[in-house]
Amino acid sequence: MTAIATLQQSFTLPCGVTIPNRIVKSAMSENNADEGGRPSERIIKLYETWGKGETGILISGNVMVDSHALGEEGNVIVEDERYLAELSRWAEAAQAHGSHLWMQINHPGRQAPSFNKEVVSPSDVELPMPGLKGMFRKPRPLSEAEIWELIEAFGRTALLAKKAGWKGVQIHGAHGYLVSQFLSPRTNLRTDQWGGSIENRARFALEIYRNMRAKVGAGFPIGIKINSADFQRGAFTEEESLQVIRMLADEGMDMIEVSGGTYERAAMMGRSQKRSTQEREAYFAEFIVKARAVTNAPLLLTGGFRTVEVMAKAIENKELDFIGIARPFAIYPYLTKEILAGKITETRSGNVNTGIKAIDRIGFMDIAWHTENMRRMGLGKKPKPNLSPLRVFMKFAWENRKNMG
Ligand SMILES: Cc1cc2nc3c(=O)[nH]c(=O)nc-3n(C[C@H](O)[C@H](O)[C@H](O)COP(=O)(O)O)c2cc1C
User: Residue 217: is it exposed, middle or buried by C-beta count within 10 angstroms (0-12/13-18/19+)?
Assistant: First the structure.
């Protein structure tokens, strides 16, 4: 089979829904909502453009379950039915050419910047970010009742996505946000049923899944994004991740996306790894083979995929089922269609280094630079592959001056 034919194959998830091909646009926070977290015309326009690219699944940027806990000021917030009309138009725009739109559902926990009035987490372990002093504050541990309220909130948001015509949801369990904080013994010091053993630390993720499943029913796709590891001493390890993947698969999870890292160590962007890993395609390629050995659940791998040959080989080798791509979609709006037509065999993401070490190490520019190009697309403009990283940094720093301590 040719590489293109491999990527072109459809795939039926455990819930019975068939995805048209194997390419997934992984979540990239649009950070472009209107006041109050309302999905903007700019976001809808961006997905109308991406929709023309016929990608199997378009996963939205992280959508917040609680207006009191934002990861960024421009996040979309879905707590109740008030934005149902905008969410429906978003779904129609994205799905007009056959793509499935999934909502990534998130709560930032301690990775909520200081503009939030209060910051919560499993325990009171502050996010240490040298160089960004004052940006994050010490979180307050959640009470038992609050934990259950948040589980309910994740479920509620999933049901709203379904009502608005979205074709699936994804729990954000990676990158050091709240679900990932529960999983890590570095941020979860609890001694109740939510902390301690890996079974207890995984309980939050599992209860969110169960709550969502009860609300959306058996035929609606639910996925999760999870870290292969946090890449920090005393944090979530590969062995633990494999255990959690098995638990999630046993529950019936429709798709498990593997990534890695947190705000402290931006492994998801290929930062803070050994040079050999950074240069290799697919940063978590060795881990996915271990994950495949413990589960038959559909696996999606994201981080570093750039050539069609490597993407197809991973599927042919049965290491995984779906290829996740993020940053290149901010440069090539119709990437999947062009790959499947044989027009693109290799992509790139932006060269985004400023030369300032403290900034480049944390992957901050990966976010700011690609966000800027997504914003251009939201205004109906073409992305600019040669945007100056330093200019983008200055603009971002100016817009976020009140959050930067
Ligand atoms: C601008 C930007 C925003 C991102 N926002 C999210 C997000 O909301 N949720 C998430 O899970 N990952 C997010 N990511 C990480 C990507 O999904 C992906 O894991 C990472 O970019 C590595 O994949 P790539 O090498 O194909 O870009 C973001 C990445 C970028 C560049």
Answer: exposed
Instruction: Return the pLDDT at 273.
Output: 64
Question: Amino acid letter at 391?
Answer: R
**CA distance readout (Å), 141 to 109, 135, 187, 213:** 10, 19, 10, 27
Report yes or no: 157 and 62 within 8 Å, Cβ to Cβ.
no
Using CA atoms, how far apart are residues 381 and 401, in angstroms rounded to an integer? 26
CB 227 within 8 A of CB 243: no
pLDDT at 405 over 50: no
* Contact in structure between 282 and 299 (CB atoms under 8 Å): no
Which pTM does this prediction carry? 0.96
Q: Is residue 113 within 8 Å of residue 403, measured between CB atoms?
A: yes
Protein residue whose Cα sits closest to atom 4 of ligand 1? 28
Residues 6+ apart with CB under 8 A from 343: none
The atom number, within ligand 1, closest to the CA of 71 reads 8
Print the domain residue range for 215: 3-403
Residue to mutate (ligand 1; options 75, 263, 327; most atoms within 8 A of CB): 327
For residue 365, the tally of other CB atoms under 10 A from its CB is 23
Atom 12, ligand 1: which residue's CA is nearest? 27
Does the structure show a pLDDT above 80 at 330?
A: yes
User: Could you read off the pLDDT of 201-224 as tens digits, one per residue?
Assistant: 999 999 999 999 999 999 999 999
Cα 128 to ligand 1 centre (Å) = 21
Whether the Cβ atoms of residue 245 and residue 183 lie closer than 8 Å to each other: no
The count of structural domains within the chain is 1
Query: Pocket residues for ligand 1 (CB within 6 Å)?
Result: 26-29, 61-62, 104, 172, 174-175, 225, 259, 268-269, 302-305, 325-327, 349, 366-367, 370-371
**Token pair of 229, please?**
């590891």
DSSP string, 185-246: TTT----STTSSSHHHHHHHHHHHHHHHHHHH-TTS-EEEEEES---STTS--HHHHHHHHH
Query: Which of the 8 DSSP states describes residue 139?
Result: P
Query: Which CATH number do you get for residue 261?
Result: 3.20.20.70
Q: What is the pLDDT of residue 133?
A: 78
Which atom of ligand 1 approaches the CA of 325 most closely?
A: 26
